[in-house]
Amino acid sequence: MIIKQAKYLTSVVEKDKLLSDNVSEFAFVGRSNVGKSSLINNLTNKKNLAKTSSNPGLTKMINYFDINDGEFRFVDLPGYGYHKAGKKNEQMWAKLIEEYLLNSECLKTVFFLLDCRILPTELDKIMLKFLIQTGRNFMIIATKADKLSKSKQYLAKKQIAQTLGISEEAIILHSSQTNQGRENILSYIENTI
Ligand SMILES: Nc1nc2c(ncn2[C@@H]2O[C@H](COP(=O)(O)OP(=O)(O)OP(=O)(O)O)[C@@H](O)[C@H]2O)c(=O)[nH]1
Ligand SMILES: [Mg+2]
Fold first, then answer.
1. Whose CA is nearest to atom 21 of ligand 1?
2. How many other CB atoms are found less than 10 A from the CB of residue 63?
3. Is the CB of residue 148 below 6 angstroms from any atom belonging to ligand 1?
4. Nearby residues of 176 by Cβ (< 8 Å), 6 or more positions away
């Protein structure tokens, strides 16, 4: 898969405004600060397409990005588990994520991101359960792989799989710094659209 073009399309905060056409969407879900926006920038090879920050809670809306002039879309979702956002905001974003995952007519696959250095949290487990309930296709991406040595990466993958009760093969290690895993994810997209 070659991404020749990527541009910001629109942002949405209400379920009635979700895009509904025949364009396939790939959505990025995960805890705040896990690296969702960075992964979109890495895959599209554009540094500032999706806004990233070391301060959690940056992405507050559903942000749509058009790829290859209408071939497919990336959907950057707000992160969960950012307590400083306040309970009201947390609930609002959680509802928005849930509504998107339940209602999007274009959603093909959810990329579910976990930090490879942190064992899945209770909220991650809830998200996994929810994803399974929706019946959506999903793929688990362990982010920030550059922060671990190869042997620690292997161990991390094993521990994540054990904690979630899933197979290790369901997890792709990725790094926005070294491009590790990038080609795997792009091939997956190519085979899915
Ligand atoms: N070393 C390293 N840092 C990363 C990687 N991916 C993301 N980061 C850093 O992690 C921080 C958070 O990244 P974001 O992409 O903004 O995370 P997000 O999941 O979009 O966060 P929210 O929008 O708050 O939900 C930033 O400081 C990034 O530079 C990676 O692969 N390696
Ligand atoms: Mg973000």
1. 33
2. 23
3. no
4. 35, 38, 39, 41, 42, 143, 144
Task: List, as one string, the DSSP characters of 121-146.
Answer: -HHHHHHHHHHHHHT-EEEEEEE-GG
The amino acid that residue 32 corresponds to is: S
What does the pLDDT look like over 136-189, one tens digit per residue?
999 999 999 999 999 999 999 999 999 999 999 999 999 999 999 999 999 999
* CA–CA gap between residue 89 and residue 65 (Å, rounded): 23
Q: Which position has the token pair 């990025």?
A: 28
66-90: pLDDT as tens digits: 999 999 999 999 888 876 666 777 7
Structural domains in the chain, sorted by start: 6-192 (3.40.50.300)
Asked if residue 175 has its Cβ within 6 Å of ligand 1, the reply is yes
Q: How many helices (H) and strands (E) does the chain have?
A: 5, 7
